[in-house]
Amino acid sequence: AQSVAQPEDQVNVAEGNPLTVKCTYSVSGNPYLFWYVQYPNRGLQFLLKYITGDNLVKGSYGFEAEFNKSQTSFHLKKPSALVSDSALYFCAVRDGVGFQKLVFGTGTRLLVSP
Amino acid sequence: ETGVTQTPRHLVMGMTNKKSLKCEQHLGHNAMYWYKQSAKKPLELMFVYNFKEQTENNSVPSRFSPECPNSSHLFLHLHTLQPEDSALYLCASSQDRTDPGRLFFGEGSRLTVL
Asked: Do residue B101 and residue A9 have CB atoms under 8 angstroms apart?
């Protein structure tokens, strides 16, 4: 069964600094990997995904993520954080075969200070 | 506006009440999902419907009863709930054939069981 781990409950970063939110995954086949963001009192919004191809994936709002097969990781990154990036971030994975459910991590709260 | 609408946004019910959550998607998607979000827990997949057929029931207690009358509507019927069922219930939809794993979420229904 597939699973993801987000080892940090919270990440604090100052505005303008680079940010990284960590995610590792476990899946039997080729992984489909995703990042979603949740702002207060809202549902989750899709940020980006890795299916195949380049290991560096670019997504919405200036975010990107790097797929590392040997380390089974898919860390979310942004070169320069904004206060408005403060939110809850979820990593998710599914097995690429057929119609498969998406399995989410526990989420990482990102706090960007002015 | 994600194209997925959930009602009500907030619901307070006693343990003996019967209520329903409603979800409607205007995206022409074939799959719909119910997720439960509790603090500091991974997002829990409850039910999946693909072309109106239930394809996943993730060991959900029978006090939660889903209904999918057509591809655009999904209900979650609630009865004799427990206080630990208090959570944010998220509905999502996807067009899995053309964009696998990309889910569009509603804003959620915040349920409080007294």
From this structure: no
